[in-house]
Amino acid sequence: MAYTVSKLTDFSATALDSAVRDLLSALDQEAEGVLASKVAEPEHDAGWKKRWDEWKVFRDRWIARKNGITTQINELWLKAAPKETKREVGQQVNRLKGEIEGKVKATEERLQHQQWNAEKAVIESTPGRSFATYDEALKATQGVDITLPGIRRPIGAEHPVIKTMNEIIGVFRNLGYSVEEGPEVETDYYNFEALNFPPNHPARDTQDTLFIAGQDAKPPRDRLLLRTHTSPVQIRTMQKMRPPVRVVCPGKVHRNDAPDATHSPIFHQVEGLAVDTNITFCDLKGTLDHAMKALFGSNVKTRFYPSFFPFTEPSADVQISCIFCDGKGVRDGTPCRNCKASGWIELLGCGMVDPNVYGFVDYDPAKVSGFAFGMGVERIAILKYGVDDIQLFFSGDVRFLEQFG
Ligand code: PHE
Predict the structure, then answer these.
(1) Which residues does 268 contact at the CB level (< 8 Å), separation at least 6?
(2) What is the tally of structural domains in the chain?
(3) By the 8 A CB rule, do 356 and 140 touch?
(4) Atom number in ligand 1 closest to CA 269
(5) 373 CA distance to ligand 1 centroid (A)?
(6) Domain limits at 76?
(7) 234 lines ligand 1 (CB under 6 A)
């Protein structure tokens, strides 16, 4: 039975005490009742509204000016008290009023905490949100409108350069190659000297290569630079592995070039190295012909054009038949712009490892032979995906990048 304020006839201290005790126990019980209600998660919002409505009913029942219990005890206890007990009763009633208001306020606060905790739980169960302390969660959940839609995290797409790099690596993995990596900050020794670059080669000039400053005290071969190609990984690999070697080395390289539609001071290469007994130029041709067909389609033809690199002898540039005009040099009756009407597109450098290089890694050039190649990843991505500006790869524009998802 719900508590009602009784009319007092006996105003003795004991009778008053007992009436006060009854009232306080009813107050306690009703407050606990308000706090014990539960909200079923599916109706989170409606449920919390209901609980606040319950608290309001509780509040009004106890402290509404018009006929709340505090008003009633004023009427039924204080006003009805005989003169000689007024002081006593007045003190009790005032104390009670304070207690009732305090309880209503405390119930409100506890309910508020319950709600914040529930909201915190909801927020924490959303991926990507967690809080180290309760206070932190409180701060975050206060003023959070949990009815707002959550933060969408669209699934990312592999960057076209990485995607292309992985494709290239995949082709060689299938041929039994493993993957090696090396540092981007290299020494002159690995980037140039051990690769048989003569001391005055133009690539060693600051015009072309980015050197780390303040190293004049070091012997030239120890000076640090940003590697200009992935070929130093050839040396590092041969230093730690004996033949047979079959590796691809993907990575970032740096050159002192001004950026434009076809140049970027930072780009990526995939290096390849195969050293074994009896490796010939035929193996090189067959391997790269297969790789180009795997990357660009089986219709593609390859041609090996004489070239020069200090670390390969003989050296060649590999050209593929133009994928835009099918090697015809003409497209829709007009000269093909992609191959400058030649029908061929130059794609990578390669050659047989120069015997001088074996001298740096303690391989015996009389016993082993091998080939190496290096290709620009952006260049291949540009051709594969028909991209007309290399800068797009580095601009971070989502509208460009999401096309590769
Ligand atoms: N390192 C050369 C470059 O960056 C490419 C290359 C690699 C050539 C391996 C031959 C052998 O241009």
Answers:
(1) 161, 165, 250, 251, 252, 253, 376, 377, 378
(2) 2
(3) no
(4) 4
(5) 6
(6) 13-141
(7) no
Give yes or no: residues 114 and 177 share one domain.
Answer: no
Ligand 1: residue whose CA is nearest its atom 7: 374
Give dist(CA 381, CA 345) in Å, integer: 14
pLDDT of residue 349: 97
**pTM of the model as a whole:** 0.65
Residue having the nearest C-alpha atom to atom 9 of ligand 1: 373
Asked if residue 141 has pLDDT above 70, the reply is no
Domain presence at residue 222:
yes
Q: Residue 350 — pLDDT band, cuts 50, 70, 90? A: very high
Residue 291 C-alpha from the chain's centroid: 32
* Residue 108 vs residues 23, 31, 369: alpha-carbon distances, Å: 19, 9, 84
Asked if residue 3 is part of any domain, the answer here is no
| 178 and 131 within one domain | no
Three-state secondary-structure class, residue 303: strand
Mean pLDDT of 185-211: 91
Q: Is the pLDDT of residue 274 over 80?
A: yes
* Residue 6 forms part of a structural domain: no
Cβ of 351 closer than 6 Å to ligand 1, yes or no, is yes
